[in-house]
Amino acid sequence: MQPPETATQQMAEASLETPVGTLCVGEQDGAIVRLTWQAAPTGASGSALTAEALAQLRAYFAHELTAFDLPLAVAGSDFQRAVCAAMSAIPLGETRTYGDIAKELGAAAQPVGNACGANPIPVIIPCHRVLGASGLGGFSGAGGVETKVALLRHEGAAGLLI
Fold first, then answer.
1. Rounded to an integer, what distance in angstroms lies between the CA atom of residue 113 and that of residue 127?
2. Pairing of strands 96-97, 130-131
3. What per-residue confidence (pLDDT) applies to 84?
4. Active site residue 127
5. Is the pLDDT of residue 7 over 60?
6. Is the pLDDT of residue 90 over 50?
7. 52 SS3 class
């Protein structure tokens, strides 16, 4: 007897070195599902989509790309997906506060901050562009707030940091 077929494929992964460390993108079922600060596992195989994601990340860090154009699939609640959509709408070089996004979504700032921290696809979904009302706020990527500052400086955002 053969196991039943599933719609889910094994995750394709690929990584590259960037100014903020090694980034690894993961693709499943035709969409980018995660970005982490690590090298792709030994023996991992990429895909055409992970190759495109790496090309767009290279272009972003070379100041040649202002908006990512990749199919994304955010795991989580409807609220998590709504926060990720709100973050994705923040243009390069601009920032919003947790409160701004909370007001837009009719929610409180704390759950927005939690959803930002749970963003599975940082950089591509720019959670680094979301700041606290009176400071930087946090950043869940490797290097924490220092990486957030580096990304904001790279984008020319938050002039007070430059």
1. 9
2. parallel
3. 97
4. yes
5. no
6. yes
7. helix
Instruction: Determine whether 69 is exposed, middle or buried from the number of CB atoms within 10 Å of its CB (0-12, 13-18, 19+).
Output: exposed
Would you state the pLDDT for residue 42? Answer: 84
User: Which member of 24, 84, 116, 127 is catalytic?
Assistant: 127
* Euclidean distance between CA atoms 74 and 101, whole angstroms: 18
Handedness of CA 20, 26, 27, 33 (dihedral sign): negative
Could you tell me the fold of the domain covering 78-157? Arc Repressor Mutant, subunit A (1.10.10)
Q: Which amino acid is at 89?
A: A
pLDDT at residue 158, rounded to an integer: 61
Worst-scoring range by mean pLDDT, 55-69, 80-94, 102-116, 134-148?
134-148
- Taking the domains of the chain in order of start, what are their residue ranges? 12-61, 78-157
Instruction: Specify whether the CB–CB gap between 121 and 115 falls below 8 A.
Output: no
Does the model's pTM come out above 0.70?
yes
Which residues contact residue 44 at a Cβ distance below 8 angstroms, ignoring those fewer than 6 apart? Answer: 12, 13, 14
Q: How many CB atoms lie within 10 A of CB 67?
A: 10
Bridge-partner residues for 72, per DSSP? 32
Measured distance CA(138)–CA(127) in Å, rounded:
10
